[in-house]
Design goal:
Blueprint lengths: L1 H5 E10 L11 E2 L1 H14 L4 E7 L2 E8 L2 E11 L2 E8 L2 H10 L19
Parallel strand pairs: 1-6
Antiparallel strand pairs: 1-2, 3-4, 4-5, 5-6
């Protein structure tokens, strides 16, 4: 119910696997169906490292599995609700995203270690 609350009742989800990987072939319509689809993606990628990102200036997130960028999701909002969800899974397109965006990397950023505090 929490996910449905942020989705517009008329939300549309599209997927792009580029013919290389599985993705939805038809748009998914409606808050409950989109929520179910997104929860299914989350369950399949339970071991993924997910980070918030900007996608063409819009809110979104990227997922990495075993150091590889495997998914970028762009969220379009209006009046405080998500009205469109675009899921990109095509490896050839993800490689271009990773090369051109400093925020979305082909591999996760290195761990950051804070310098020791000075007395």
């Amino acid at each position: 119910e929490g996910l449905v609350a942020v989705l517009d009742p008329a939300v549309v989800l599209t997927g792009d696997g580029g013919g290389e990987v599985s993705a939805t072939r038809r748009p998914v319509h409606g808050d409950r169906d989109v929520a179910r689809f997104l929860l299914g993606i989350a369950a399949k990628g339970a071991g993924a490292v997910v980070e918030p990102v900007l996608v063409n200036g819009a809110a979104g997130f990227a997922a990495h599995e075993e150091g590889r960028l495997v998914l970028v999701v762009s969220l379009t909002t209006a009046a405080g609700r998500v009205v469109r969800v675009d899921v990109l899974r095509a490896p050839s397109k993800l490689a271009r995203v990773a090369r051109t965006s400093p925020r979305v990397r082909a591999t996760p950023p290195p761990e950051r270690h804070e310098p020791p505090a000075l007395p």
